[in-house]
From TrEMBL:
Pathway per the UniProt entry: One-carbon metabolism; tetrahydrofolate interconversion
NCBIfam families: PRK10792.1, PRK14186.1, PRK14189.1
Subunit field text: Homodimer.
Protein name, entry field: Bifunctional protein FolD protein
Gene coding for it: folD_3
GO (cellular component) term, any one: cytosol
Amino acid sequence: MTARIIDGKAIAQEVRAEWKVRADALKERGISPGLAVIIVGEDPASRVYVGNKVKACAELGLYSEHIALPADTSEAALLAKIAELNADPKIHGLLVQLPVPRHIDSSKVIEAISPEKDVDGFNPINVGALSTGNMRFAPCTPFGAMTLLEKAGVPIEGKHAVVIGRSNIVGKPMAMLLLQANATVTICTSKTVDLAKFTRDADILVVATGKPKMITGDMIKPGAAVIDVGINRMADGKLCGDVDFESAKEVAGWITPVPGGVGPMTITMLIANTVQAAERAAGL
Ligand code: NDP
């Protein structure tokens, strides 16, 4: 079997066009959805991510503010900036690019962001809302992975979904979203004994470990949908995922490539969450 490739770039374009229609409808009512992105320090990767988020807003005609603070910004000053943006009616979505410098407590930062504007979905109130089935904002990367499954027509209800990884930003919310979509969900971690026993039983396999090419074709159930969240930079400068694409695509029914799979969806879902926040603020 050769897997159907789930084209994240094409699906991201399609989803952005859908959200642009909703953003334009808000604009007709005089509301421009607004996103504020705060970055503290000079981390080059974070600067690229923030630049891409601001660029995506501009492409869809959203209002955005990019607030770059120096690395020695105090925790109190950052919290004051967040409070100011929480109260700013032009801003519907607010995020602080992680990681923040070590002298700042990232939990305090996440908790300071108003749950109504927390478009990353990391505030514990929104994490709780997701796990009690009253979701307000789904964290962008798992939301993007779910959207890929849905757009590719992968059946989810009643299927066995195995998520490898339990981070707060990918693994755990991914498992919650799959559970909400009525999959039977297993979460595996670095402590799981006999990982292949679980992966070989997965109808849907989501891999988010940060371990390059660790899932090989012999670990995949024939016909399974394989979502590779991993982004790893190899010695030759190329990107690869946590799945060995070449062997996996011979066994899987669907597979996401890296790059060009989950990656393009993350910022797209940030846009979606920002537009939703603006709709809610307008009482829609
Ligand atoms: P973390 O390092 O926070 O979490 C990794 C998880 O994988 C942990 O739960 C860990 O288990 C588990 N794990 C590690 N090794 C193994 C193993 N051998 N077997 C089973 N489980 C294992 O990573 P993130 O969740 O933040 O990111 C995961 C990957 O996704 C990275 O490659 C990252 O770059 C990428 N990513 C991509 C995004 C995108 O936009 N496409 C966005 C965010 C992340 P334990 O808890 O036991 O340590």
